[in-house]
Amino acid sequence: MAERIDGKQIAADVRADVARAVAQLPGQPTLAVVLVGEDPASQVYVRNKVKQTEEAGMRSLHHRLPAEASQADVESLITRLNEDDEVDGILLQLPLPKGLDEQAAIECIDPAKDVDGLTEASAGRLVLGKPGLRPCTPTGCVILAKRALGDDLSGKNVVVIGRSILVGKPAALLFLAENCTVTIAHSRTVDLVGICRAADILVAAVGRSEMVKAEWVKPGATVIDVGINRIDAPERGEGKTRLVGDVAFAEAAEVASHITSVPGGVGPMTIACLLRNTVIAACYRRGWELPKGL
Ligand code: NDP
Fold this sequence. Notes:
Blueprint: E1 3-5, H1 7-24, E2 30-36, H2 40-55, E3 59-65, H3 71-83, E4 89-92, H4 102-107, H5 120-128, H6 136-149, E5 157-161, H7 168-177, E6 181-185, H8 192-196, E7 201-204, E8 222-225, E9 229-232, E10 241-244, H9 249-253, E11 258-260, H10 267-286
Parallel strand pairs: 1-11, 2-3, 2-4, 5-6, 5-7, 7-8, 8-11
Antiparallel strand pairs: 9-10
């Protein structure tokens, strides 16, 4: 039976490292969070981001724009935050309301303040292996794998299922930077099961409930489940739902050596890595030495 990689605990550890780092800095990093519209899930995410930023000893500025805001409104707010020397990190909460161009809005963010790591400049630095701000969820995946297997992942065969800009591609590049041998699988991959079975570390970032079955997992592999899928749960009562990952947890746990759960796995790592990026951005921008342990 696999050991569960406790993302909640590991995220708490990362947040504690961030708080310790913040306490050593000569000033207080500031994260500006931009929320456009009233999407209830986004409101919850933003509340958590603001709360956890403050708990780590940083300042957070919360900017809200109405759902009817135009592209120009969003971009001029971002430009203002770029120019505000007090602001170290800018987080644009996604998704934006329909009709707005997300990629164009993201591109307005000063790469030095791109704590989500989603601008073309940040992606370019990741591909080139230059220091920079890395996307949060994939960074969380690497931290979880290291907590399971130790800091040296070199030579591990990693299979990432999914090639999105948000998760799959950057996850593959981050594991490559750890000297892993990386395969990216996607919807056109032939013999997906066979490819997954070769993985020492299997990262599922697909968005399909419990797609990865026990026979996809090599005995003793480490399984990182990024998926967040809401499914009906009639056993909990009429109309009830529950969250599951992209991995059939119970059966995969019989085969793997380490595995993350959903919820309680990758999810909590995303905000923790955002806080970490805010400290890193503040240090790069202000010429502060990056405290050890981050
Ligand atoms: P996308 O929909 O952007 O990408 C999904 C990827 O999965 C695509 O590359 C697609 O391939 C691939 N795919 C789809 N179906 C199959 C299949 N049958 N076999 C193999 N590959 C397939 O999703 P995201 O990357 O944004 O997110 C993935 C999951 O992670 C979602 O469940 C999302 O909710 C979750 N997530 C969780 C986060 C967290 O904090 N834990 C943060 C972000 C996302 P192709 O490119 O060929 O279409």
